[in-house]
Amino acid sequence: MAGDRHHILPRFLLKGFASRVEGEKIYTWVYPRNRTPIEANIRKVSVEKHFYGKEGELCVDDDITKFESEYAPLLVELRECTGQIEIFDPRVPNLITHLVTRTKHFRDSYRESVGFLVEKMGEYFSDFDNLKEALLSTMLNKPEMMIDAIEEGFRDHPELKPFENIIRPLLPTMFLSLFDAQKTDNQLFVKYFFENINNKLPKLMKDGHIKSLLKGLTPEPRVEDYRKLKWFLSNTDGSLILGDIACLSEVSGLTSYKSFTFIDDEIINVYLPISDRKILIGTSFDTIPQIKIDNINEAIAKCSREFFIYSKNCENKTSLIPVIGKESEIISKQEIKNIVNEIILEYKIGLLN
Fold first, then answer.
1. Are 309 and 242 contacting, i.e. CB atoms less than 8 angstroms apart?
2. Using CA atoms, how far apart are residues 314 and 31, in angstroms rounded to an integer?
3. How far is it, in rounded angstroms, from Cα 134 to Cα 347?
């Protein structure tokens, strides 16, 4: 992967879905969201310039290249296996962890979720009454902030020190009056503040993602969650697709399938298609679960954000294009709205107390 064009999904994984091979050129069929399938060289699939950073700057590309060279033989070994077998190789949970956390799907979904959160917070605080209410709540719940500001004011203006006993009790009221008098400026500041955050989000999320990967390509305790599962390799009767999520998780609850799990999610099964006829399955059960390939393919398409790949161009896979991205959110917009409502409620409770 060395160079300025970085593979977001490793080529050693994409190879399992080859449509044809011409010398060193390996091709696959890409099924993009809202577009017609196209056959492409895997060198051009799931690629973005400087996705893992630029050389000489914050960059994890060399670490990932080294990781790929160590783990590519694992998939070669697994693809050569036949039937259904249990896998005890300790590299498997590490590989799954790495694939889950390295993708563009992961980074962009987080950025979109945080962006939506910032947008909703901006909408709420653009109302001056809400802004003032939040200020009052902060003053009541964290008076030390006001005290620190007052002390700093007296330090900056020592000529007022003799009148401190008179001025100090009046300062909160004076501050609120000044806040009201500068209503337009305060509203413009809030608008600029939230717009500035959203404008900086792409770089902030990219830098944060790279820093996280630099700390470890198989971060704990996530890898420990996958070590707790039993791992099996299975041949399939039906044909499998590979989504831009790489791994698909099945969890308990209303949302059955996810591209990314959180600490409170109960993982039932994890699926990684390694070719169009072989799938790696991690399960919380003692034996390999029975799976329905059509259900898995549909879930992969829904949880993917931009595309999936397959070894052929066929109608039954094309029929999955309309559902790409339907369930790709890491955090749903309703969950984010609930978070905003909880934050707002905290301010209101602060005022009542």
1. yes
2. 10
3. 6
| 95-127 tens-digit pLDDT | 999 999 999 999 999 999 999 999 999 999 899
Structural domains in the chain (count): 1
| Rounded Cα gap, residues 69 and 17, in angstroms | 19
Q: Can you give the residue range of the structural domain that contains 80?
A: 5-111+214-333
Q: Would residue 73 count as lying in a domain?
A: yes
Asked if residue 190 is part of any domain, the answer here is no
32 assigned to some structural domain: yes
How far apart (Å, rounded) are the C-alpha atoms in residues 54 and 3? 9
Task: Please report whether residue 165 resides in a domain.
Answer: no
Distance CA 266, CA 183 (A): 48
Q: Give pLDDT, residue 353.
A: 56
Measured in degrees and rounded to the nearest 5, phi and psi for residue 282 equal -105, 130
Question: In sequence order, what are the residues at sequence separation of 6 or more whose Cβ sits closer than 8 angstroms to the Cβ of residue 133?
Answer: 347, 348, 351
